[in-house]
Fold these 2 entries.
Entry 1:
Amino acid sequence: MLTTSMIGNKIAEARKKINISQAQLAQHLFISSQAVGKWERGESMPDIITFNRLAEILGVDLNYFSESIQYEAIEMAPVESLVKQSAELPSGKQNLPAGLTAGRHGKAVKKLRWDMSRGNWVDADFSGLKNLHDKFSSSNMQRCKFIGSDLSGLLLKSNNVDSCDFSGSDISSSHIQSSNLAKNIFKDCSQKETEFSGSYIYGCDFSGSDFTGMVIKSGGFEKNTIANAVWNRTSFIDTQIADIVFAGTLEDCYFENCAFTRVTFQNATITNTFFKNKNLKGVRFIDCQADRMTYEFLKNGRADLTGITLLTP
């Protein structure tokens, strides 16, 4: 078993190999350089979500840290079997204790519940999944399918979600906290009123998604594809936004204390949108239109306005 000191040495060795400083590594992870220093001195150790992000940044396989990472594997019955069991349970209208429902002969039986917390899920197909009302935390999910699923109203915390397909799913009114989401497909999904907090969203495809009322705060939003997305009352707060192209109509949106790096608004119409940022020099505008209020917010943030035309009242 690797000690914290040995893990620290591994982190330092990989960091130096790609020639970045502790401060630069910390910036990529949205943490302090002091935290990186503690890792490398063996005084503390990253959590599993951070290990995954570290591997991406340092250009190493997750197995580089494998002796220190132990996922809790959960043996799972085939999805078809679980769905069949669920269909066989009558709905029942009796007043029964929580977690129980009526069986075929009127007897109380335990209601089937999905519990996907603390699991290591790889190459699983959950397409069409519905009625997942439980909390769903501390899981590692890689290359899983949730196509056309109802994932609305969930609390997801401390998950690592990598290369999964959520195309056509409803993820509205969910809370996603302290999670790593990398290279996932969210095409034509609904993220209405969903909140991402303390999460890193990288290399995902959100083409055709509905971001109405969505909030992203205290995290990262980088290198994601967002073509033909719906932007209405969407908020970015204390977020690192990098290598993103915004297009289409942005209405009643909100950007506060965000760090912009290589962000482009192209062929976009931006109205009633609030930019509370001291420095917008990392933002480029190409063939955009904006109303007077939005224009003044951008001007106050020292944005380059040459690519913006004022909308006539």
Entry 2:
Amino acid sequence: MNKFAVIETGGKQYIVSAGDKLKVEKLSVKGLKAEEGSSFDFEKVLLVSDGDKVEVGMPYVSGAKVATKIVKQAKGEKKIVFRYHSKTRYRKRKGHRQLYTEVEITKV
């Protein structure tokens, strides 16, 4: 069985294992520049599984870390927000591009 973990970042939870790439909310590390190629550890680990052995945190597993490498920081594709009221000539169109960080999991 593969070793995997459940981490929390940006108000969301992700199931990750070594070698995975995922897009998360933009990371801004206090005191560090979150640049491409730099490493980062997720310390909010909710669950760690290694085959038959499963550790569940209350709420986090103590001493568990997930090591990652930042691949890139960018903006996502444009989402269109369109508001419309019929019969009143009310139309509003607005675009939004969410900032994200793409990370590669190096070690669970």
